[in-house]
Write a structure and sequence with these properties.
The protein has 330 residues and is an alpha/beta fold. It is 30% helix and 28% strand. β12, α7 and β13 form a beta-alpha-beta unit. The longest helix has 24 residues. It is globular and about 60 Å long.
C-alpha cells in the first residue's frame, strides 16, 4: 500500500523536499509498535526549518517531517492502545530522528501517544499542536511558581506565532494582563482580539543592553533566546520567572548573573519534546478545559501537503501569524 508524505533527502551536494508516494513496507522499517492513519498534522517552526533546510533539525536521512499529528490507531502491538483509538503525537524526535506526521500514515511508539481529549476535535487538537502544548507547559510553570494576575504584566515574545497565540488565549482566560512583544507593531488587531492589552516592539529587545534594567514583568514566556532573553531577564521584577522555550533569535544567551543574584528571578527551561506522558496528558487537559473553540478557529488556516514548502518559507521569514493545520488527505 502506498501513502502520500513530504519526503526530505540530503547528501553531500544536494537537498530535496518533495511530495512522494511511500510504501507502507518502508514505513514499517521505522522503530515503532503502532500504525496510525493521520487525520491532521500541523506546520511548526521546527518543521519549517527541516523543510527549507534552514537549520540542523534533521539528524537522519531520508526523513518525513512533522512533529505533530492526530489520528486513528489502525494497528498496534501495545497494551496501551486499541485499534480505533484517537491519539495525539507531539515531539519525541519525530521529524528529526524518526519519520513524522506530515504524511497520511505514521508508525510510532505507543508510549509517545496520548488520548485525544473528549472535548476537543481532531482539528482543534492540531490548531493547538506542539505550539499550544508548549504554551500550556509555560503557563502551568508560571502558575506553579505562584505568579498571580495581581502581581503585574506577563510578557510574551513571538506573540503572533503559535506558542504566543495560545499562551495569550490561556493567560487571558485566567485573568492575567498581557504585554506582547511583536515585530508587527503597526498591526495589532489580531493580538487585541486574542486578549493582549499592551504592546512593545520586539526590536527593542534584540540588541545588547544593561545587565539590570527597569523592572517591568512579573513573568515572561520567551521563544527568541539570545539578546532578547537576556534583556527580558534584566527587565523582570524581583522574584519573577522567565520561561524559555525557543531560540528563534539564537541559541546564545549573552547575559550576566545580575538578575538572578540581585533580583532573585528564575529562568525556567521548558522542554516539550521529551516531557513525560503524565505531564503531557495534564497539559492537554488544561488546554481542553480553558481554550475557547471559536477563538481557536480564528487563529487557524488549513493547508495541504503541497502547500507546506511555500508556507515553511514564510514561517522562516516571519511572515505568518497563527497556526497552519495540514490535511494530508486533501
Amino acid at each position: 500500500m502506498l501513502f502520500k508524505a513530504i519526503f526530505l533527502e540530503k547528501n553531500q551536494t544536494a537537498f530535496s523536499c518533495n511530495i512522494q508516494n511511500i510504501s507502507e513496507e518502508n514505513l514499517l522499517q521505522q522503530v515503532g509498535d503502532t500504525l496510525i492513519q493521520v487525520q491532521y498534522s500541523s506546520l511548526n517552526y521546527k518543521d519549517a526549518l527541516a523543510i527549507t533546510n534552514s537549520g540542523p533539525v534533521v539528524r537522519q536521512w531520508p526523513m518525513v517531517p512533522g512533529i505533530d499529528g492526530v489520528g486513528t490507531v489502525i494497528q498496534t502491538n501495545s497494551h496501551l492502545l486499541c485499534v480505533g483509538n484517537k491519539v495525539i503525537l507531539n515531539g519525541w524526535g519525530c521529524g528529526e530522528t524518526h519519520w513524522g506526521c506530515l504524511s497520511q500514515r505514521a508508525y510510532l511508539k505507543a508510549d509517545w501517544l496520548i488520548p485525544l481529549p473528549t472535548n476537543l476535535s481532531a482539528k482543534q487538537a492540531m490548531i493547538i499542536g506542539t505550539a499550544g502544548y508548549t504554551a500550556a507547559l509555560c503557563v502551568q510553570r508560571i502558575i506553579e511558581y505562584g505568579i498571580t494576575p495581581e502581581q503585574g504584566n506577563i510578557l510574551i515574545t513571538g506573540a503572533t506565532g503559535g506558542v504566543g497565540s495560545i499562551a495569550i488565549m490561556l493567560l487571558n482566560q485566567l485573568g492575567y494582563t498581557i504585554t506582547a512583544a511583536t515585530s508587527k507593531i503597526s498591526n495589532t488587531d489580531y493580538l487585541q482580539q486574542l486578549g493582549v492589552q499592551h504592546f512593545i516592539d520586539s526590536k527593542t529587545l534584540a540588541t545588547a543592553n544593561k545587565p539590570l534594567q527597569k523592572e517591568q514583568w512579573a513573568a515572561a514566556i520567551d521563544v527568541l533566546g539570545s539578546h532578547s532573553l537576556a534583556n527580558i531577564c534584566a527587565q523582570t521584577q524581583y522574584g519573577g520567572i522567565v520561561t524559555s522555550c525557543g531560540l528563534a533569535q539564537g541559541m546564545d544567551l549573552p547575559a550576566t548573573v545580575a538578575p538572578f543574584i540581585l533580583r532573585g528571578i528564575t529562568l525556567a527551561g521548558i522542554d516539550s519534546v521529551m516531557a513525560p506522558r503524565a505531564k503531557r496528558i495534564a497539559a492537554w487537559e488544561f488546554l481542553a478545559t480553558l481554550l475557547n473553540p471559536q477563538m481557536l478557529e480564528q487563529i487557524a488556516q488549513m493547508i495541504s501537503l503541497d502547500e507546506c514548502p511555500r508556507m515553511a518559507k514564510e514561517i522562516i521569514n516571519g511572515q505568518i501569524k497563527g497556526r497552519f493545520i495540514v490535511d494530508p488527505n486533501y
